[in-house]
Fold these 4 entries.
Entry 1:
Amino acid sequence: MTNPNSTQPIFILPPDTQRTTGKNAQQNNIMAAKLVAETVRTTLGPKGMDKMIVDTLGEVIVTNDGATILKEIQIDHPTAKMIVEVAKTQESEVGDGTTTVVVLAGELLSQAEDLLDQKIHPTIIAKGYRMAAEKAQLILNNIAETIDPKDQKILKKICQTAMTGKGAETARELLSEIVSKAVIDVADEHNGLKVNPQNIKIEKKTGGGVEDTELVEGIILDKEKVHSSMPSTVHNAKILLLDASLEVKETEIDAKIQITDPSQMQAFLDMEENMLKKMVDRVVASGANVIFCQKGIDDLVQHYLAKNNVFAARRVKKSDMEKLARATGAKIVNNLEDLSSSDLGKAGVVEEKTISDEEMIYVKECKKAKAVTILVRGGTEHIIDEVARAIEDAIGDLIAVIDNGKIVAGAGAPEVELSRNLQHFGQKLPGREQLAVNAFAKAMEIIPRTLAENAGFDPIDILAELKAAHQSGKKWAGVNVFTGKTMDAYVEGVLEPLKVKTQAVQSAAEVANMILRIDDVIAGGVEQAPPQGMPPGMPPM
């Protein structure tokens, strides 16, 4: 950067700094965002394709989940990273709709590029986009349908919509039944229904097919019993959850025990054995016949527990202990001295099973279990991972529906309705913002357009049909990707949570506005490593 009034240049930035300003900066940023959107655009909808991502270690991921694709590919461009952040926000807030939000953001910037070419100032476009985004929230809330959050039929249709086009599609009937039941099971009825996704454990094991996936009314642990003589199956289990070790305690300070006589040694060993035996006696006296211990279990304790037909597992994770407490109604005990029968939980069956050559413990048939497990099966790890991602998306959708009880149809119907209403809204605006609102309205059409393109149909014909249907009052007219015609998406059961759409439109508008307002990109040079043997920060001699 130089002083124009001086012949001698004045440098205020390091010489290796890269700087892009004005139109070039805007074009570069918009191009980067559009490229990210193009990367995931082909995965949208029931006919969307998959991506194979191979990392530097040769690990392979096959998916069409937008969030997973953007998380796994290495992106260096700072603007592209902003688009990835939007996908992460959508994933954490709703759990679904990541591809939609990225495609919308890319199209909003593409439409803005045309306005910039017409010499419309970026702040005018940003203001128009902000107005359109606020209006879009109102429109979406007005067209949304209110449902009963406990309506299993509707919940199943929402699950099926979330899973269509993903690896789980072959068994979506079964999986939607499992997911909807799991979500209703773990819902807490305090001030309305609330669901914590942490209470639905997803366990993955290769073997069998996707249709062998099962819901367990309880918890599956990737553990095995600590002693071979313990029973493999316990019916009418009374479960003790112990957050303490069943071992002889060591002193917290360094201590020495001095033994001067061999008989003292035997007495010391006998005392240690008695302490361990007392621990087992306390457990047996409480009525517990199953123990899940967060810490270690001494070999001698294992022997005594086996003799008393008590099933035990050790080193159980804290998160699993909490889920077991919710599933069985047990209290986590920190001190054996305070143990009573009221601290125990109940389960119909606790059994050790061999799944894919690995031992697993099933804690099942829990009455009113508030934590459940979905055991996902499939032919390969890649299939299982993709099915698990589809299940997570479906769970996110159901939680969003249960949260506010509002849904919209899918298949591009809400976006066409949004576009139509926003165009009417734009016509009433007096200034140049009208152009930005119209551009926002046009950008919404990218979703039905992409659905049609990914299904191999002509998007122009389909969009013309959709617009005509919406103009005649059919607000749920959407793209039928199997026939290339329009359909009533609501009647056909293509349903999505309202929150997926409101969050996607809001986030896409915000990131588009932020990128549009950047007119100067200053990239610092790569810091040179100091010569060998010289401490960092020291100038070379």
Entry 2:
Amino acid sequence: MSEAHFEHLFTPLQVGPMRVPNRICETTNTINSSMVPGMIDDNFIAHHVAKARGGTGWIGSETWLLDVPFPPNTPDEIGLSIGCASHGAAYQYPAFAEGMKKFVDEVHKAGSVAIVQLTQLTSAWGPSAVPMIGAQSYTPHVLGEAEIEFCINAYADAAAVAKAVGADGVEVHCAHETMGHAFLSPVSNRRTDRWGGGPTERTRFVVEVLKRIRGRIGDALAVGIRISAQEFRQGGYDNMEMREMLYAIAETGLLDFADIDTGHCWGAPSYVPNSYYPHAEHREAGKAAKADLSELDKKVAILFTGRINDPVLAESLIKDGYCDLVGMVRAGIADPEFANKAREGRLGEIRRCIACTRCIDEASESLYIPYTPMCSINPVIGNELRWQNEYQPAAKAKRVVVVGGGLAGCEAARIAAQRGHKVTLLEQGKRLGGQLVLAARAPGRDSFEDQIYFEENEMKRTGVDVRLEARADAAAIKALKPDAVVIATGARPRVPHDVTGLELPHVVQGWDVLKGTATTGKRVAIVSQEDYYETPCVADFLASKGKEVTVFHKNVHLGWEVARYSLAMVIGRMESLGVVTVPNVTLRKIDAGGLEFISAVGDKVSRFDGFDSVVLVYGAVAQPELYDELKAGSGVEQLFLAGAAWLPRRMAEATRHGAHIGLAI
């Protein structure tokens, strides 16, 4: 599909005083790309401007957290539990404004527009004494009149700074547990004064904020709001009530655009929908809002977002009237160049987001200190400056052999071949992908196969000699006379050494269940010693086939390491499928009748009987044996151990490791 076939996606749009060059938007996402917390540094600029250079027309970058009304003598309390709050805010510092001005200038040089989102998070403050977040264990301080006035002024002050640094628009955040959301929600706003009431009355705070902003900056910038189409919270507003509120706000004439998504960040569905949700599932919310606001004299552009990772889908959303602009944040994280590739008809080269949510999960609950942004399939994310400095054609073309066609092996081969090396990739299986092939077989994970397609296409495009079902021992490698060898042989399922009865015929590995090489009976016990997605995927796979599944898990709940944007979805799916979880247990013994466990936190012994099959999900063990053999005496100039063959972790770690090896050859 060439640009001519994208009749709508790449057309400009006038939004208030701002002309957006196309309909593709990086809606605001706080991925914490700056290495200087709270400031705008070169890492921040490199990350977000890469999307502008890649063809994204609307750059929302990362939210501005505003100051909030602490009482006198209260110390700053920085953290999600208190709303990321302090007496001051980053936008008030000259160094922040200088960095933002540099960023905005770079966005403009790339031909895109820069939007600033203004946010007051609300955990410690609120319109009523009701927790904004269901998982929150304390009740917020109720805002008084003077404190509400303080909040409103903070938005206006920040908007003035946005104008001064040259931004094209400002967006007031009224979703996702923010102050605007707290006032709009009937759950958290139960006031009986002028700030509360019915749907239209509850918009007063948002309207007053917009008035104050307009009073400060006039019509110099486009002004909009971000709002959730539906809360999906007990007692929360539904889409009809949201439409009533949005119409009341737009009727004031203060709005140029409305940025709409659905859900929240502590339940299901999440406003960051992962692979278990359909693409653009709640698109009708955009169409309804567009129809409602078309009656107004002033044009209000509708921006819709919600798992849109494909330009063809984005084109259809615009064409069919669901929205005027399309939010494609994670599409641009997976591939900052996707818009240019689509415009130029290079659809097969797009690395499509697989909706694993690692990027936003890592931003909220990072595994690493210091934190760096991360993408499971794009090794450049969080390392943009390093790649700008280090990615160079090879000084000398070498013969490179890569053993293993999982993520680490494919990325090592891809980058090495792009740099000019002659690469041969040996894979023992029938196709590339490694553990991705298994993961894609689980319900809701079919999108993971998109990355396999990408790697297959890239091997062809870059000229990698891929040999499937290939025997890769030391002799076979030496016969290829390589200058460099990458061992990316992956991992194998871990087998516990302190459990008796593993040899029984009804005991199988979770990997074999997903492969289809092992079958189970009706009643299945899954013994889980891993805290991420592997156990839920195996349980989902079996329960979706009608099996009665009980998970015996080592921790206090299933998916302990699944972050907040996706955890409720995981637990919700298990509930809907009837999967039972027994927490805090460690397996000691399997016999023909049942299983014996000991408490993970004490000495209590328990027994469970009546299962037809036992499925082990114990994580993985590295397979470096071939590397060790070659290291002992291969004579190869460069020898690397990559990905899970070194340490079994997650996709992003394997992707990065392999790609960085590709840089080093």
Entry 3:
Amino acid sequence: MNPHASSAAAGPAPGRTGTARGDWRVLRRLAPYLLEYKARVVIALLFLVTAKLANVGVPLVMKEIVDSLDEVHAAVVLPVALLVMYGALRLSTTLFAELRDVVFVRVSKRAIRRVALEVFRHLHSLSLRFHLERQTGGVSRDIERGTRGISSLLSYMLFSIIPVILEFTLVAIVLLKKFDWRFAAITFLAVVVYIGWSVVVTEWRMDIRRRANEFDSRANTRAVDSLLNYETVKYFNNEDFEASRYDEHLQQYEAAEVKNEASLGLLNIGQSLIIATAVTALMMLAAQGVVNKQLTLGDLVLVNGLLIQLYIPLNFLGMVYREIKQSLTDMDRMFRLLSENREVADRPGAQPLHVRGAAVAFEHVDFSYEPSRKILHDVSFEVPAGHTVAVVGASGSGKSTLARLLYRFYDVQGGRVVIDGQDIRDVRQKTLRAAIGIVPQDTVLFNDTIFYNIAYGRPEATRDEVIAAARAAHIHAFIASLPQGYETSVGERGLKLSGGEKQRVAIARAILKNPGILIFDEATSALDSKSEKAIQSELERIARDRTTLIIAHRLSTIVDADQILVMEAGRIVERGTHRELLARSGTYAQMWALQQQEEAAAA
């Protein structure tokens, strides 16, 4: 057995997913993906049977060749027909094995593609809560291992387990037909002991492997998280700290891998001992039969050939069993992602959102991310069609939560959110989000070109429409000044652009989407005063005749709003126009005075 054959990395599964019940559950989940190509599976199995029949036929023909070449027959005629048959069988063994691979490859690759796509789609359908709590490195490794596990499982099942079972059956039949019962008994006993040893030791090794993979996942998660926060690492001069944390997981992985390889040596030694003992016993029986004139020299060659053909694939049974078990474990962990509950799902019979004027209303809304900490308390307000409502308040007052609820990233626990009289829980999420455009406070861009990131607002938009949106967001001149223009890559999460440049891209993207409802979540927070004034007038222009919700920190940007809501600790404590709120001399007036003082001091 190849000692390096065990190096396939796979992810650990929580709990005892390696039980027979769990394995059958995984196989049932996989079965529908294979039914698309039932004919190919059948043909591949036929090629497999043909290849194995040819393989077992090789030592049978070799026996006849050896017997025909003894001193009596060799002087008469050279067994040309037998030699040709021997060559044809040798060729057939390889030919039909390769044809089996060619026919089956589309089955496995299509299954991998369909499963990976389904997991990808499902991850996008999960709630924001799942994505805030997940670890990107670990999830991506789970998907990678799971899809690789499908390929391994199908390959080992079709190309290793079934062939070994078939070949053992054929060899047993030949031994019973050609020789006495002792040959078949020793072969059967050896196979049983071999399989027992392989299963017991491999189950023990699986626990070691699971721990190794857990440490591998932790190390990968640590590395991805650290690299995604590259700037923060640099800000605090923590390269050595990050390296030490990464190395801590690598050391654990190293120790587990060393133990894993040592246990592999023990497995190999036991397997070799069982095979060597059985082969020696069978060859002694065959040799004794030749000496006693009960068997011919060809029979000795036949026994040796059959055993070699049986034990060579059997020698890899431990590795195959381990890899199949590991593949099932990896697939189970990936399929568990498909079992993640969609916290926010379309109700049965949900209808598309019918936007007429795009009036928005929050009616007695209560909401909490965690049961112990309530975020919104009986929040009620309306944004009439074509009007602008601004929400202000201190950090943690619940302002941004309003945008998340309107997008239905979460469902409210009390009250309801309606658009044109339709409870958003009763409409399809896809149509709901198609009607809303947002410029978020923290703009994260795809690691692609500027053009791609702007066009993401409406992927089918023409180049002229994308450029027009960039002009409206006052970023076209900047883009045109770049050597590669709109084809400039923005880097991971848009890190090659400044905060203001990213914000302008986000504004252009929202303009291009052209939705009926607009949300500006601190949309100009990353801009300087001059840029803010230029873009503010543009935002007012695109918000005209649209229903607009503005979540603001700078009060100077919302003085013209039709209504301003002041929030404190998840409650609306004041509401009115800018002038009305100033006249009340309440919380809003204090915030306004404080910001005016700060701006005056800065000037």
Entry 4:
Amino acid sequence: MSKPITGKTHVGERREKRPNGDIYIYERVTAYNEKTRKTYTVSLKLKGKIKSGTDEIVPTRPKKHKGEKVSARAKRQHTGLTDILEWVGKASGIDNDVSASFTEGDAKKILSVARYWIGTDGNTLPRIESWQVMHPLPYTEPISEDVYSNLFKHIGWNEEGIQNYFSFRAMRLDSSPVLAFDSTTISTYSENQSEARQGFNKNGDGLNTIKLLTLYSVKAQEPIAFAKQPGNVPDVISIENALSQLKCLGLENPLIVTDNGYYSQKNMTEFTQRNTKFLTLADTSLVWIRETVDTLRETISGMSSTCTFDPAVCGATESKMHEFSWVRQRLHNNKEAGQKETFSRRMYIHIYHSHGNKAKKELAFRKDLLELKAQIESESVDFTKPAQKKIEKYFICSKKGRGGKLKVRFNDKAIAEAQKNIGYFALVSNQKMDTFTALENYRLREKIEELFAIQKGRLDGARPRTWYPDNLRGRQFVQFVSLGYHCFLMKKIKEMRATLGEDGTGKTKALIKLEKKLDTWLDQRSLAQVLDWFDCIETTNVHTTMGSYRWSTESVARDRLFLERLGVTSD
């Protein structure tokens, strides 16, 4: 007996292999035609395909039917600037070091605020919540005033996290790093900051100050650690804590470079006793330095003593044993506390003469003496102690008879003796090194001054802007992280520019021309202007029932070359 005809359809599957190896899978609906006694296809629908060499079925995108409404979720953000900063955080290791030192939430907030400061050239924080609406940051929730205030407070309390971050940054340095050590002051009207005190104010505004001390790697060109102190603490007594911090960071044989603000016999003794290498600018008026200048004067005048990277400077080095003394603080090896001890160590004195600097300083010296002479003759000025010392040294003052007119003459012999040493400067070290290697290391130290200018001017660091000392500590740490971003990006741009426009294998004339165009463009812009230029790049993301779509603003060839050579995008 034959099977009864039900009239129902049957759903099956059909596979078709294409010439490229892809297999298309269709859903086939069939039915039986009683008249023709044959099976026919009712409908054929493409379900997906299996790409050549794989076993996974890739489903097809559903078709939009006429009149059907498509719901979409869309978002547009400025990603050009933030993509560069995200690359900086990863390439420099800063993001990893912050994440390893703090909780996930705090780490994302720190990185977000740090990127905001560098991305806006130091805008104040009340604007960050509106800025992050159009700029993707690691912390996706709104960063309100309460959020960043609590962040600064918690970081200020979390000294373990701060010191861990410093140690992680120090671990990335090469062996035997060269570290610059210097300070700056932050002025404040606040009476809540207990460390704000009257001292030497580098801004010269007469306000109470807080001192910020920074360790900076001159070869890696990035800050390593910082500390804050009361504003009345002189630079010259700040070395001891810095040396303790170096031990905490675990740096191997660092060379500490300082200017003459840190030079003193006591500091040299501290360095020497702790077996720490140092290089410092010394005053040529010191007896033992002045004797070395006299000894090397003839040598320095020769052509062979000319600096190869700065022909305006000549230099020579002499080593000599120098005696140090110190007072014992506690009983040790049967030696009583308070007992004075002496020891000798070999010092290397590098003497330099700058011809260009000599002319400027000599002119300033003469103008100063002429102005001082006029003030003496007016007899209407109360002189400070330094000015009185100059008068006693460089002038001969006399009066004829009782109530006679004051007569002021120059002491030409003393002036000639002083002018003899104008243009000379000295570097002292306990580490043997070439004359001009020492000069190069010292000049690299000057980069730390640029660092302070960036932190104050471009990272909103000129004022504390917080009520309490612990909050200030946290705020300064986030600024320090942002400073790391800035230094790394500047270094990479400098390295990239050194290769632009050079003839090389595989470079066409058109490419060399484009590289020169990029180099000229970078030469005319600051880092803030470069980042602002790329801030115009927008990315739009649209998610619909039909699928997800993404597109970004088009870029010109020069901009694409910049991102490729920097490493933000692949070639």
